[in-house]
Design goal:
By secondary structure, the protein is an alpha/beta fold. It is 38% helix and 21% strand. It is built from 17 helices and 17 strands. The strands form three sheets. Strands 1, 2, 3, 4, 5, 14, 15, 16 and 17 form a nine-stranded mixed β-sheet that branches. Strands 6-7-8-9 form a four-stranded parallel β-sheet. It is globular, with a radius of gyration of 22 Å. The mean pLDDT is 95. Bound molecules: zinc ion. The site of zinc ion (ZN) has 6 residues, from loops.
Length: 470
Amino acid sequence: MTDILVTNGRVVTQDADRTVLEDGAVAVEGDRITAVGPTEELTAAHDPDRTIDADGGAVIPGLVNPHTHVSDILLRGSFAEDRGLLDWLYNVKRPGTLALEPDEQAIAATLYCVEAIQSGVTTFVENDTEVVWDDWADIEAKLGAYERSGIRNVYGAGMVDRGADPAFKELVTDIQARDAGVDHPPLEHFVVDTETAIDEVESLIETYHDPDGRQSVWPAPVVVETTTNRCFRAAYELAERYDVMTTAHVAEAEAQEQRSLSSIEYLRNVGYLGPRALLGHCVQIDEGDVRILAATDTAVAHNFMANMRLATGFAPVAAMLDAGVTVGLGTDNSILSDTINPLNDVRAMAGGHKGYHRDPGVVPTQTAFDMLTIDAAAAIGRRDSLGSIEPGKQADIAIVDLDHPHLTPCPDPVFALVHNAQGFEVETVLCAGAVVMADREILSFDESVDDILADAERTAADIVERVGYD
Ligand SMILES: [Zn+2]
């Protein structure tokens, strides 16, 4: 029984040999891929309920975004212009995201998913770094939207169990003085004691983590400065107990560099590094840190565009790749990248590292594409089920229309996807064997895309007014 047969595609399998099948086909039964081969062969062998003609387009694994944030998508605009990390965080992101009501969180999540689907993303890891644990209304509003979206989500449940020290409080007060008209939430707004953080995250995993479905929950200690060593250890233990991963923001900017122990050394010492840890950023780390990441089999989510926009610097990705560290490309905050479209970021990422190192050989094309697919899947602990088009894997597939002037001629679809594609050429998306977008029409939400955009526009204007951004 074949449910769907995708035919006539240039199938970029991302298998171990990185096979590209010209005039290839993919058979899907239920939520799985059952066969991959020449169109002629699979058409003769299968009698599908539905045939999707890729018409010469690239058939690629659904993209995996290993590090992103959702709620702040409604804060798009120029508010983040010319701000460093802490200025942006305390004057723009936190006031806005903490002002959102649950129904507004759902609107943000819906907008996010529409953009993600249109970009060919079928899995994303949300880092929810501003969780107020009084109730789960905000979280549940977002999870409801993800459920309706039809794509996969990992909800990284933020853990903050350490308040700021007096010196840091003073620094933040000075930073906030720049935007005195903004309604700043209290600094300790989402700090809870260690037990509460652990218990809440564990309950959330028990309630919403579905190992066979599209929703996962991970413990996500936010940063070294606001999470205790006990909480980091507990997060890793929870990940082991529930067979999930854990993720944190590490060495994004100068704050971490003030420690006598590097953040990577510190996390190794407290028992947080290992195959279940995915570290976001790792910009300001050195050779020794890279060696520790490789030795502990710790994965990294590289957030190139956000690092450029916030001017935090170039992460040593070339060194990480040389050392064998698994690296996926994330889009980070939607108001920093400033899209959540991996195909839009990947060319800048590959080119940026070449320019930075004055070496055209670093981050080769195939490696760059791996960072959106198979390596991103490995980075989130899902190498066995996601990130490539192979029998037995989840049927997460995107079809990219190559029939555009900027993609012509196209002797190598992988090169075209990395260096020519803009990210809007994705036409059809399947996730877990279900068609969530066909010929650019999103099928998963009841509302039309026009209505979703209008809702988001209205809500965003209201938030800007309420928070008091200039
Ligand atoms: Zn982030």
